[in-house]
Structures
1.
Amino acid sequence: MIRLLPALLLASAPALPAQATDQRVYQFEDLQLAIELPELEDLRSSPVSGDQLRGRWGGKLGAHQVLITLWSVPRQEWGLTDPVEVIDNIAFNARRSEGGEDFEFDQRSLLAGPFGTLPYAGFAVSSDWKGTEKIRLHYYLGGLAEERGYSLRVAVEPPPDEAVRERLMTFLSTGVRYSGPGEDPAWTDEEAEARWERDRPEELQGKLKIFRTEHYLIFTDSSSGKLFGKKMEECYDRIQQTYPFPEIEGRKLMPVFLFRTKEEYVDYYVKIAGNTKAAAAESKGHSYRDYYATYYDAPNDPVHVHEATHQIFSNRLGLSGGGSWFQEGVAEYMSTSHNERKAFAKGAAKRGGFTPFREFVEIPSLLGSAKGQKDVKGGSVAGKRYTQAASIIAFLRESDFGAEKFPDFLTAVGGAERGRKGVERAIQGVYGVGLEQLEAEWVAYWKKAR
Ligand SMILES: [Zn+2]
């Protein structure tokens, strides 16, 4: 669940606090958090009231004005289970505040350190522009305490030079210290059992087996949990090689529900995701919220790497934007071969028969948009759209046009708001072209593909 937060991060210059102070260390007992401010000239603070804004300080670093704020919200109410989600919420709220529709982060990553119950923080940077001039920079750090999530935000104006940037990064990486109890990244057995009891279909009482791998927690009633865990790790490795992302210590294992039979899987899908029985029965696996659920059939089925990609993009990378074409594209690229993509894309590039990019990026669900539709030759429209999406990712990752900036493309489009406007702006920012030109490059690439 996401709630609106009063935004003080956009357009107009934030006023600096009025009261001079020389106190630099602050303790927040309910968060079990200590903050040591950087050495600022003319350090000021202002009293804060209310539940969410917890601290507000300002000062100068040479010619730069610096404003620091600390916010916190209850974890349970906001559904916060990972520091990445604190950062997601900042973008979500910024886009819904006045003048913030076009909000994007310039950069996102994780910082390792004693930031909360899990030993890392979400980190992001954004810019404020006045015409073509960058006038202000914002840094965001998001972490989890036991009961509450928090974000520490730093606004700098004008944007920092290298020396100021370094001092602020030192503050963000060393000025925050959490001293409360940690969470077990591997889940405690009680925690895992409680999750199973909450979510399992009724008929599976007392049948739980739990297997842990390096990145996954497998809940199962089948005898194949161990083997399946191995397969999931192989998927993880392939995904990480294709879309490189850093490993950071202490991340929570990702839950996988592996059912013995298809019937049990369908019951679970209907119970948790509220899908109809008929729709659930058409799938072999699905990822939703933090989990992946499937049933034991063929461990090498491409569905597993496809769904594992969805789970990693949302649960690990915080890249759940861009729209259905992007999400299905990165997943389907993992579960198809070059020849499968070429069989569609080469012909489509030569003779037409693909969905124009401007229309394609706006489709809310590639699957739902074409339910049951067949084209003139009797192929499924949804199937072609999946392959088109994969062929766009293949083109960007493998072509001279796209390869070098492919990692930037993933971050920018995966972090962009769904819809044509956000996607086009992100692509423009990375590749310097609009959607029509991107489509022309895609056509030229696939026409020549071997
Ligand atoms: Zn998918």
2.
Amino acid sequence: MTQPATIDVLVIGLGPAGARAAAKAAEAGRTVVALDRRGRAGFPVQCAEFVPALLDQELADLNTVTLQRIDEMITYVEDGGPDLKPRFPGRMISRQAFDEALVARAVDAGAECRFGQMVEGISEDGTVILSNGDKLRARVLIGADGPRSRVGRAVGRENQDVVETRQITVALNTAHKATDIFLSADIPGGYGWLFPKGDLANLGVGVAPEFKDRLKPLVARLHRVLKREGRVGGDVLGHTGGPIPVGGMLDPVGWLGGTVVLLAGDAAGLANPVTGAGISSAAISGGLAGEAAARYLAGDHEAGDHYREELEDLFKPALDRALKRRRELLAQFDQGDTPGAEDLRRGWIAYPEYWAA
Ligand SMILES: Cc1cc2nc3c(=O)[nH]c(=O)nc-3n(C[C@H](O)[C@H](O)[C@H](O)COP(=O)(O)OP(=O)(O)OC[C@H]3O[C@@H](n4cnc5c(N)ncnc54)[C@H](O)[C@@H]3O)c2cc1C
């Protein structure tokens, strides 16, 4: 039987993690093939589209994909609030345009980016099998295939905990420069949000999976309340959703036969277990994975270990704190208790209690 040709770097997934990985490995002169099952970059959007100002340090040119600036965060705990957290800067981006731009950069760098290609299986020797029957082999396999990563599963690293989400897009009646957060014991393991983007807003809710059947009524209720307050329109202009990994960081390095496997972004469990934010960590970790792949191929056999250390240094302290806070709150539900306002505040990043020992 003929063996598939071996390429330098194969990237599965062309979200922010995969597109950055493909760009960095290609910039270093490696042959890169990157695949995504979607028909085109960034579509359909499954995101509330907020990125913190921190991402400006990693990616130039965010202005071209920015819908509006965010200056602060406002939190409502049960029927209380608004609690203002000033100086919480960031941007609302068009996630589709953002993903498209990152893929365009990978293509410019020389990566071959293919859409409409679904990975169906990965064998123990590292051969990647596509749904059209094609087989691919690479010296480095980068798993940037999101929360339910097949690449991660192949090396025994699966996100165990996720939050399930539902989001609608509505008209926003008054310009707003804050991300609004709604915390309630009725939203176990998650929260509600209203993120403004010009004259529209993303309005959504996330919950622990066992409460998934509450999502629709919770979003409808939040929508009703905000409409009654005159803040948003009554029409639902779009809807989306999807899982967010909230179980914390996985070991991002593994082996399949002679193939090194690097996980990045949601596949490596890098979304924040409390906020669900994962765009920045995906873009940053993807870039580092691409660089690590290139270093490994240039003869640095410790490149994988260094990649793991880089991710641990950058992300682990924040992820561990968030995981701890998340577990404290969920434990109350497990014990049949209803968390009070104090507990909810301790579980949310806007309050000093969250950052206390
Ligand atoms: C409703 C919702 C709202 C969110 N809001 C925010 C927010 O406001 N801010 C924020 O920072 N984060 C947010 N997140 C999280 C954020 O979207 C993710 O953390 C981020 O997309 C992770 O990027 P990634 O590249 O790791 O994975 P993804 O963006 O999920 O990309 C993975 C890619 O892999 C592809 N893929 C998967 N399996 C296969 C396969 N078998 N074969 C081929 N291709 C495959 C997918 O098609 C996808 O394109 C939100 C998530 C959800 C669900």
